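for ur thesis appendix - Nitronate monooxygenase. copy paste whatever u need, i formatted it the way the template wanted (i think)
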Amino acid sequence: MIRPRTFQSLGADSPVFFQGWHPFSTDALAAAFAGAGGVGVIRMPAFPDTEALVRRLAELRKGGQLGLDFRGVLGDFSTRVETAAQDLAAFVMHGSELLPERLEALRAWGLPRVVEVRDEAEALLAEAQGASALLAAEGEGLSERLRRMIRSTNLPCFAPAGAEGEGRSLLSEGAAGLQLKTPAMLREGAADFLASFRKRLAEVLGEPALEDLVDHPAPELPRLRIRNLDIPYPIIQGGMGIGVSWDRLAGNVAHCGCVGIVSAIGTGYRYPEDANSVQGRPLKAENLNSTPALKRILRSALDIADGRGAVGVNILCAINEYERVVRDSVEAGAQLIISGAGLPLALPEYVGDADVALVPIVSSARALKLICKTWQRKFNRLPDAVVLEGPESGGHQGFSLEQCADPAYSLDALLASVIEERDQWGDFPVIAAGGVWDRADIDRLMALGAGGVQMATRFIGTFECDAHQNFKGVILKADKDTIALHGSPVGMPARGVKTALHRRIAEGQAPRIRCISNCVSPCEHGKGAERVGYCIADSLGDAWGGDTESGLFFTGSNGWKLNELVHVRDLIGEITQDFGLTRLQV
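the 3d part is after this line
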């Protein structure tokens, strides 16, 4: 049953307003929404610190309704978390995809539950399981889905809204209230149905603070233009393999107006029926980087993107059968190819006349010069963009251990020389990558001349990331000291989380090297793996499968900052400071 105090508006006929965006590093907006008679929502970290949670709730809950968003919790629902929630929260929010034991734990707490659902079937199931209210998930056909939920259940149904017109329409359809997704809805002169709530919010926050929040957004980011692609936001999601960025992540990033990148490595793990295997490992490069699997993944990503943003593929120069994977990507419809881990000097030859943007990854102006000189001389073509990857990135580095620690090789320090070299060849964008975390980083790098940024690690902390939940758990549990550079079979440093695999190697209990997949040429069919104590294909494959004992878990230097799971749409809204992604509403 819904508690009498829960989801009640201040006026008899006025709707309830949920907080739907998180602009601060604190929960100040949640407290303000609650104090103004709305509903504040606190996003729970993946692994809650009970003491910190109790302190947060005690400080924030001074009247009003505060809910706990459990959608991204990976850790145990401890008894102490239960006690804190029961004492200090008005409700809990979770998604429809909840493990049975977790659902039972939340039901046992006795708190009202708001369940995010995507369709009528999920709504009916949530009602049967004792939900107190429903929140329609964002996405296509929202109005129709909301109508079906209202008709088929007896629960109050709330809906997300990013614009006044949309909100008015959803309320007319019967929504009990709105999840406000953008501050623009609360500007001076807000719609009549929002006016009284805005007034109360101004009383809680203070009019200057509210105006600063809703009327003075961050400076608008430029669009990103690469070849014939016009990308609404200048953000590329970096490729992460094995299986961290495949169709679900890349497709959703593109659907939100950015560039989603599918990793071409290890696709045979995704669809084992398309690959010959030995002892659970794809046999040789032709099966590790499976043609039918890559095409299925890329085409699925393009379907999810539905014409928004762009979908590309990241292909390591160092993999065996590189040319074949490039041709597979072109045939599958990749809109751009990003290629590093070596110099992609022959990439234009393999792409031919296909209308595909080519984007090499470099670590120096010298590398860019060699690529441009070679491409122009041999193929009469130049890069459509270039990614400059600094030494704070996850995975393999284009620097020695000493260079990774030298400020002269930092991303900021290298950017000027690469831009200067680019200017000798044209005006294609230079994309800054490696350690890019937030809007402040983007603004700094673009002020230095970057045309956009590539971010990878931030996207591990999303629901849509293709990685196993155990993979996400390893990254979300990591602290600053456990993320380090270590040796790799390819002969260059690689950055990831120190795990049981590294401990076993240090103790002389390294896993047996079999080189079934023959993944990268610098390893020389297992010789590199013997030197460092692990096979990179096997270890990344184990991480894809969620094996925390033998898996290899790559992340950037800022991976320790991840502590929660969010939706891609919300993350991009936070990064761009365009909450509601208004550029996509044209």
